């Protein structure tokens, strides 16, 4: 074996070792690397988590309501909406500023805890999740007009 | 004799080729950057959801591509230098690092500026953002190894091993948005099924990508030239010092 081949095997070996180590670490940490859970992931859990979690999904169309709207307080100070992934839905309560992209059908990630009865998630932060589609408004309108608009099934 | 990469191993021949290529690389950078910025800022539509903020993409996305590309160049050149002892490969790897680190920093900063209005957060510890931050630290670590060892041969060997190990991070960055739920959106351009970006927005994106690429080629060529000149100077000074020492001794 020449010195050159030995160095080549050394380089390949070092890389393979690093790749294996990284692969094992990442697969072991899979659940903590995931930035958010979807409603179906939560439904699959034996019980609702007590610690703060991040929940991701789409804002269900027609589910946004402002319980304070009548009381004369700032309309936007309290908002409720459903986060859905098509299969499961979770009700979210949030008091605070919403990101500009927040709207019906938009992907969002909410951070918060479940109430004690597990019925709702009280959020202390709402992030808007953008998808991978970029187009001018005219194109989006034209697609909708022709009925070619594909609503995303999942937030992912 | 068959021409090969080893012809470039002669630093003087490399310098001759580099000097001839440099004006063209600089010219291509200026032309593409001017066109790219014109399209990005004036001659492309606002996004149907993001509005004018989408223009950050034309600076951010190509910078992120270059962050990955420069590291791939470093890892490739390091492997060539490590295995075949090609004398220019180590120089190329060493000089590509600060450029790649700058692109990574640019991607991180513009990403943060884009994240605040769109997501509602400057930063999130999701898989994509975190793995790119690790890439930035890898660049810093790689540059530190070169600085830590005065003996260039030893520094080159250790830096090469670090670069090869760190290359594991590159596919992780690329696929982070597919393997794990992340706040960062999935790939829009280099993906199965073609780009999901409208053609009118792809034009400025690719122009800027080309501009960054030529900028990288031009700065890499020039800094390799100056590194080679510096090494030659150091060698000459060493010889000079040694001969005068001999003279004093006599």
Commentary on this structure:
Chain A folds into two domains: 1-33; 36-145, OB fold (Dihydrolipoamide Acetyltransferase, E2P) (Beta Barrel), CATH 2.40.50.140. Helices cover 29% and strands 24% of the residues of chain A. Chain A is built from four helices and five strands; from the N terminus they run αααβββββα. A five-stranded mixed β-barrel of chain A has the order 1-2-3-5-4. Chain A is extended and about 85 Å long. Residues 152-156 of chain A have low confidence and may be disordered. The longest helix of chain B is centred in the C-terminal third of the chain and has 51 residues, at 199-249. With 250 residues, chain B is mainly α. The model of chain B has no long low-confidence stretch (mean pLDDT 90). Chain B has one domain (22-187, 199-249). In chain B, 76% of the residues lie in helices and 0% in strands. In chain B, helix 3 runs antiparallel to helix 4. Chain A binds chain B through residues 4, 7-8, 11, 14-15, 18-19, 22, 26, 30, 33-38, 56, 97-101, 109, 125-141, 156, and chain B through 45-50, 54, 57, 79, 82-84, 117-121, 124-127, 160-161, 164-165, 167-169, 172, 179-183, 185-188, 191, 196-198, 200-201.
Residue stretches of chain B low in confidence (pLDDT < 50, at least 5 long) are none
Provide the CATH topology of the largest domain in chain A.
OB fold (Dihydrolipoamide Acetyltransferase, E2P)
CATH class wording of the largest domain in chain A: Mainly Beta
- Basic shape of chain A: extended
What is the residue-averaged pLDDT of chain A?
Answer: 82
Strand ordering within the main sheet of chain A: 1-2-3-5-4
Largest sheet of chain A: 5 strands, mixed, barrel
Distance between the termini of chain A: 50 Å
Number of strands of chain B: 0
């Amino acid at each position: 074996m020449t010195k050159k081949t030995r160095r080549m095997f050394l380089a390949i070996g070092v890389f393979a070792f690093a790749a294996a180590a990284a692969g094992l670490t990442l697969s072991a940490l899979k659940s903590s690397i995931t930035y958010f859970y979807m409603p179906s992931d939560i439904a699959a859990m034996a019980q609702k988590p007590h610690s703060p979690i991040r929940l991701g999904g789409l804002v269900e169309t027609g589910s946004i309501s402002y319980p304070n709207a009548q009381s004369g307080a700032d309309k936007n100070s309290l908002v409720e909406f459903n986060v859905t992934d098509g299969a499961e839905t979770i009700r979210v309560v949030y008091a605070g500023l919403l990101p500009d992209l927040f709207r019906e059908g938009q992907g969002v990630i909410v951070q918060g805890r479940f109430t004690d009865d597990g019925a709702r998630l009280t959020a202390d932060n709402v992030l808007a999740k953008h998808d991978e589609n970029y187009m001018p408004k005219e194109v989006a309108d034209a697609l909708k007009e022709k009925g070619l608009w594909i609503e995303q099934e999942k937030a992912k | 004799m068959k021409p090969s990469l080893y012809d470039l191993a002669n630093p003087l021949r490399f310098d001759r080729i580099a000097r001839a290529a440099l004006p063209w690389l600089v010219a291509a950078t200026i032309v593409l950057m001017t066109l790219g910025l014109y399209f990005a800022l004036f001659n492309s539509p606002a996004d149907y959801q993001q509005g004018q903020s989408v223009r950050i993409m034309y600076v951010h996305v190509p910078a992120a591509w270059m962050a990955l590309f420069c590291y791939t160049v470093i890892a490739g050149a390091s492997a060539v230098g490590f295995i075949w002892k090609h004398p220019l490969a180590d120089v190329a790897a060493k000089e590509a690092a600060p450029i790649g680190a700058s692109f990574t920093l640019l991607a991180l900063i513009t990403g943060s500026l884009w994240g605040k209005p769109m997501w509602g957060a400057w930063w999130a510890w999701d898989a994509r953002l975190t793995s790119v931050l690790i890439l930035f630290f890898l660049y810093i670590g790689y540059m530190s190894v070169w600085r830590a060892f005065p003996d260039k041969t030893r520094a080159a060997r250790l830096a090469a091993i670090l670069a090869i190990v760190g290359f594991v991070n590159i596919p992780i960055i690329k696929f982070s948005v597919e393997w794990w739920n992340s706040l960062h959106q999935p790939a829009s351009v280099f993906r199965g099924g073609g780009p999901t970006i409208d053609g009118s927005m792809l034009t400025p994106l690719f122009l800027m990508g080309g501009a960054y690429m030529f900028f990288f080629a031009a700065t890499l060529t020039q800094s390799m030239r100056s590194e080679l000149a510096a090494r030659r100077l150091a060698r000459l000074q060493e010889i000079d010092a040694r001969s005068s020492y001999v003279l004093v001794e006599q």
